[in-house]
Amino acid sequence: MADVDAYDVVFEKDGPMGIDIESSEDGMDAYIRSSTNPKIQKGHMLVGVNDQPLRGLKFEEILEKVKSSKHPRKLSFSAKRREEESAMEATLPLPEDFFAKLPPLSAEDEVAVKKFMDSNLKEAIRMVTTKPEDLGLKLLQESSGVTIHSLQNEGGVNLVRAQTRVPIAADLFMYAALAPDNESFQRIFTMLDPMFRDGHVIHRIPKDWTRYGGKDETAENVNLPLYSVKWAAYALPFPLWWRDFVFCELTCWTPEGYGVSLAMSLPRITEKVPSLEDSHKLVRGSIGMSGYVWRNVPGSDPHKPTGEGHMMTEITYLLQVEPKGVLPPWAVNLTGAQQGMNCLRVVRYAEEQRRLVLKMYDENTELNRTEVMVKTIPKGEALEIPVEVSAAGKTIIVDWILEDNDISFSIIAPDGEKLVNVEKATHNMSGKPYFGRIKTKVKGKHIMRFDNTYSWFTAKKLYYHYLALQV
Q1: Band of the pLDDT at 346, cuts 50, 70, 90?
Q2: What phi, psi does 90 have (nearest 5°)?
Q3: Residues 46/7, Cβ–Cβ less than 8 Å
Q4: What is the pLDDT of residue 57?
């Protein structure tokens, strides 16, 4: 499948263009009704003028954009209709077991992944810490505390580097960045990238990886490094076909105190994952050096939420992608800075975490550097969160708070005993959070249940974090 169903026609001088344009039924698209230019075909859609996309404009606005554009006038057309875009959207997300039949990585493959990612880690840190001018980077945009630089390589892979600071601890960002399963991977990428459509964790290295490696559940004991192989699909601006990528990911702390979530495509691994070009119209791209690098700002205190020297993290976002196919300039213009501004989404995430941290800080100090999760519990429903307790006598430590209203809360042991049972608790933002330390009697899967079944009219927005510790 050819990637680009978009093509350009340049009109050098003012005068008749020899095309007749008609509106779509909803008035949002402009189609060619007839044309004297052999390159412009009947039924094709007008999608850009002078490398500027026409997405979101009404038919009258499109006509005005064309009439007012300067010469030489470049018009971009596409044979792909928006109905095909909707059809692509309907094929995602993939079923949870879509990649289940893929054979596991061989021992040789696992060694290759680890060696490849380890060999690029030092270069990733260099690209983060080196002055932009020394890397040949040029300032692309500066907005809302985010500085974006880019390097345009003719015939090569472009690089975007975005940097900012966020008022959270580096450990908390690691909790969010560590995505070893489909649920966490999809959650964090959906939050950070508006172009992300679906993702799967295909392999973990080691295969039997667990988050804390059998140690106590604390920020210091997060089991790193973690290597993984992931698949992800992204929506490119209409009318371009969407892309998918297979990449290796390394999540680790460096000896210098940098947290790293580094993604790169390794051809020998990518070729083991079948193409979805025919079945889902996805063009397989390749990822260069991409991901996030972060650390606590020197002189800041990750244990101090406010005041002089309070917690602060430097975050750098790298993006180096070979999307394959031929991208028209208007698509590059639309996506380059937009991808760099993913750092701004990190800032928004950090601000929300900070709001919650300030509300929940100090009471259960073990949770201070862990991510606060967010769930909306619909009216008439309940949320059950499994908590695996590895040994009897451990303590489930939990903080939670509602945005508003009340909810019933219980912790249920594997044998059915209710260790906690609170009816219609009013722990919300107008008051204090629920701070719990509950001693368990047996090992096994305990259930934290937030019960909103009694509410016929109101959904409840819940914020929570928890650990099961030997204290």
Answers
A1: confident
A2: -70, -15
A3: no
A4: 84
Rg, Å, the chain Cα set:
26
Give the alpha-carbon dihedral of 351, 353, 356, 358, to 10 degrees: -70
Could you tell me the pLDDT band of residue 2, with boundaries at 50, 70 and 90?
A: very low
Rounded CA gap, 128 and 393, in Å? Answer: 45
Name the H helices within 325-415.
329-340, 342-360
pLDDT at 224 over 80: yes
Average pLDDT over residues 37-43: 87
Give residue 315's pLDDT.
95
- Could you count the other beta carbons within 10 Å of the beta carbon of residue 183? 11
Secondary structure (H, E, C), 37-101: CCCCCCCCEEEEECCEECCCCCHHHHHHHHHHCCCCEEEEEECCCHHHHHHHHHCCCCCCCCCCC
> For the chain, which domains are there?
6-79 (2.30.42.10), 107-360 (3.30.530.20), 372-469 (2.60.120.680)
Q: Which residue type sits at 413?
A: A
Average pLDDT of every residue of the chain: 89
Instruction: Specify the pLDDT at position 1.
Output: 44
The gap from C-alpha 464 to its chain's centroid, in whole angstroms, comes to 21
Q: How many residues does the chain have?
A: 471
DSSP strand E in 258-335: where?
259-264, 282-284, 286-287, 290-296, 313-319, 321-322
Q: What is the pLDDT of residue 184?
A: 93
Which pLDDT tens digit goes with each residue over 410-441? 999 999 999 999 999 999 999 999 999 999 99
Q: What is the largest CA-CA distance in the chain?
A: 85
> Does the pLDDT at position 276 exceed 80?
yes
Residue 184: which residues within 8 A CB-CB, separation 6 or more? 178
> In terms of Cα–Cα distance, which of 49, 46, 52 is closest to 31?
46
Amino acid identity for residue 432 in this structure: K
> Do residues 10 and 72 touch, judged by C-beta distance below 8 A?
yes
On the CB side of 367, CA atoms within 13 Å amount to 28
Nearest CA-CA partner of 377 in 350, 408, 348: 408
Residues 6+ apart with CB under 8 A from 132: 138, 139, 149, 161
